[in-house]
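User: Hi! I'm a student and our assignment asks us to look at how structure tokens line up with a sequence. Could you show me two examples?

Assistant: Happy to help. In each example below, the sequence comes first and the structure tokens follow. Example one:
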Amino acid sequence: MTRTSGFKVHKDTTGGEFRRHLEKRIPLQPGEAVTVTFSIAGHAKGDLIGYGVWFWRTAAVTYTLQGGSDKRTLTEYGDASWNKAGSMWPAPDTSPVEVTLTLTAKAKGAVALYAPMCGRVQHKYLDDARPELMRNMYQFAPEALFISEDGAGEVVIEAAEDASSTDLPVILKSCNRCGRFLPVNVPVERDQLSFSNHCVADHRRPCKHATFGRLRNVEDAKEVLQLDYGYQLECRFCKKFEVNAAHNPQRTSAQMKEDGARRRAFELLLAELYGGTPQLRYRHEKGTELADDVWKRFGCACFNCGAKLPTPRDMHLDHTRPLALLWPLDGTATVLCGSCNSEKRDRAPSDFYTPAKLAALAKITGIPPDDLAKTHPNEEALALLLRRLDWFFGEFLLREEMTKERDGKIAGELVVKALQKVLARSGQHKGMNLQAEYDRRRTQKR
């Protein structure tokens, strides 16, 4: 068993409730700024420290974040949504830390802030977490900032004018694990804050799942928000530690080896179908190295979190569109840091990035925005495969690495099953039953 029910709820919430919270706008004249200073002191070396805030700003307001860890969260949503900024990291020493978020108006505008916080971060899951679970925790700020009440953190907000009497609403959704109400963006649901979306694929929208796709106002039972994408019941922090982290240890070493074997088989298959590895073909066509060119194209930094990657060896080249759907690692690859690459895994771009990020990714990679928004397989590779079925069954699956048996499973059989799943998502070749063809040919040989 690798999964358990996700419907174990907090005694006070189901994960399907929301409440409206009102924050005061801070008015800004052209050239004026709101400065949020996070000061952390009194911590010990190795303590987990962090800062964070949710904020809204009008379109004419720009913002910068300075100080603290180089790895941080800073979203770039439009003025229809709330943003978030933050990070968390182990303190390298006892030196005080100061981080500044500055929001500056190019024209008359306004800013609103929700729950600015900083200091030492303490939680039972963080204290005992496996090292691999802590590598990307900066991506979970501020929703994962369980700030200790020991006075190690101070937040100072400076503005030319006091907050106005104009209210700005923020929607807070409940988590069915920790019971907290945390910000979400409605109606621009893909501008994710504290919860991941539930139904992302076009064919699953609007989300019709009870609780995921409908939120009930805890203060007015008659008000129900019908969502398009919907939200997970658990906040991103609880999803990571109470759901996903609990499942990962249940995956056996054999299962992980199977995943690795399938990836290697798909890479080998693509190299055969396209006549060479992507790196060698790229070098032959361009006269330069694939990794070097992609690294420079992305500004020598992680596309997702912005972390600087001093050399190509520091980066992870992501397929952009997943290898699991037969997309090769070619000139459309994306530069990610190790943490972001591990978090993305085999997800399609639209299942991982926001619409704003997808638009930026389309410009850099040259992949049309409509293609990035889809979760379709590589139809070209499937067509090449189906034209060479005799070779696939008569040569490729008979190679030594494809006929090896591990834990009672033959590698080639696993590849056929994986390819059948890809075909099931195809718009052009959905009717092809590769599994049945494999069984038929195997029976004939007997």
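Example two works the same way, sequence first and then tokens:
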Amino acid sequence: MNWSDTTRLIVAALLVLAYLALCGGIYLSERRKRLQALRDAAALRPAADGAQPWLIGYASQTGSAEQLAWQTARMLHTAGVPTRVAALSDIGLDDLMQSERALFVVSTYGEGDPPDNASLFATKLMNAKQALPHLHFGVLMLGDSHYAHFCGFGHTLTSWLRKSGAQAIFESVAADNGDTKALHTWQHHLSHLAGTADTPDWQAPSYQPWRLAARHRLNPDSAGGPTFHLELEAIADETTWEAGDLVQVLAPADQDRPREYSVASIPADGRVHLLVRQERREDGTLGIASGWLTEQAVVGDTIDLRLRPHSNFRLGDNQHRPLILIGNGTGLAGLRSHLKARAANGMQRNWLVFGERNVANDFYYRDEIEAWQNQGVLERADMVFSRDQEQRIYVQDKLREQAEQVRSWLDADAAIYVCGSLEGMAGGVEATLTEIIGSAGVEQLIQQGRYRRDVY
């Protein structure tokens, strides 16, 4: 094809215009994102007239309390009230002394303990006598009434504030598993304090229909409960998540109490993977959620599910650090998602310490783990099977045995991620770490965000 000089000039001009249009589109898109980020940041700045901001502190293990703290701040901002939001461990005595009004949104870890991002506040401030008669406060306590010490840390915080002379603006609000009625009560109090009643109701993210695409048992003939690998596909909207995140599932038999599971996959897998152990009650009946997911639902059925960001168990600032990943049982799910992410990003300083019953029947994802070892994704893998020898051993015993290696990895700035059972494993791991590096060392890891837990 022979083009005239004029045709060539026209084509060249069109190409230049197309390129400029593309660059302009990218620029405008990025500019909109930056402007929105600035608006979001400005929305929570102290008022220009120098009015003292309300202090909003959160203690969050799985992210729910943090999310509600920010919702609280945005609601107050809508009414013209300046705020400052911070994790409890980032709040010192000076902050409390300089604040006249404070709101606390706190969850409870385990049987009444503070979440990791409140441990410094609990050990340093709450263990000392303080005089806070000037402080007016309100507390939203998040918990699960199935635990013996329901909202234990929230009650402890409330009691400490009162003993310090602080004055409650209203009675502390207890929310059982995100109870909507309790959250509306909290919102009502905020509306009254802010002098406005026209703020929208707080609605949790809606559940979306997902299709159960695959399911197979990982531990046939195991002496333990049947454990299944599940894969779910989004039916409607495109969704994304990060390694370390959670899902909440609504079982048809109990629509009021969602069950949380650690995600065992990354978005590149195209599906949400779960690792679910089938529970049975003493009378032999199946657990409501685990029974639905592992037996009663059939492949192809719709599952009501929503993804939950779990900021405390995401990698965040730890993504370039060596990782020590510790877990047992179905806790391998959360660790698997991190290993998948690390493999995808070429990060090879990873040490897995995992425990179950027997190597013959309970080595979940064995082919995958051995492939990661061969590929160098796993620098170390200590698989601990408690029933394969006369004397039972657990992951905490392996850590104690490898104390020098633990110290070496931590000296190299490693982060520790623990996923699995709260009773036995998580407490045993913390006790062993305390033996190895001391209580001050463990506390320092928590403060630095290098000790993260997703336990249940």
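Here is something you could point out in your write-up. The chain has a mean pLDDT of 87.
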